[in-house]
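Allow me, if you will, to draw on your knowledge of protein folds for a short while. I have a record of one protein: its chain in single-letter code and its fold written as discrete structure tokens. Could you please explain, in whatever detail you think fit, how the structure tokens follow from the sequence? The record follows directly beneath this note:
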Amino acid sequence: MRALSLMPADRHFTGAFLLVAFAFIILEFAYGRLAHHDEMHDTKETLASVGVALGNVVTKALTSGLSAVPFFLVYQHRLTDIPLDSVWKWLSLFLGVEFFYYWFHLASHRIRWLWATHAVHHSATRFNLSAAVRLGWTGQLTGGFLFFLPLAWIGFHPAAIAAMLEIFGDDDLSVDFDLEPGQMQFVHNRALGHSRTAFVDHPDPDRKRHLVRLWMRDQGRRAYPG
């Protein structure tokens, strides 16, 4: 999910990503129809998701400068220079972006101001590929980029931070697998709890899914935020 961008993305990269994403959405839609899995896609909702994705690209292009300016201002007062000339420095940037993205995503579920944008991603009723591109239009305006400013202050170049966030959003880096009957999966719910693929229960009793999801925690509130 690429809900955040620190500066204007390369037009060729953005265009290529959308073309690939839309191609796979069309293939998934066609497969659902040919295999008689009509529950995979709701045509109106899929078209709405595509429209939201196009709107996200336009608004991101118009508002990304709002985050680029503070990043470069902070970078002018950086503690040191961290040139990405070794594997260890790239790994440090990766861990840094991952750390701050964790808190950004957590805050997006806990703080209503940020949830107003992130909720768009969770608004689909069918969890398919089109839901992955259903991203809010106000990501720059709500200030989510502020979570990553410490990386620029430490000494990482803003362009490198933005590039790492783009890599994080690459669907090719995700892992898909099927659970067989009787298997159990233990995951970090906050990170993976909403990463399931499309599913609507089958009307035939013999083909219904039997799945039990347990929310196990040893502290905090009972309600799952999102």
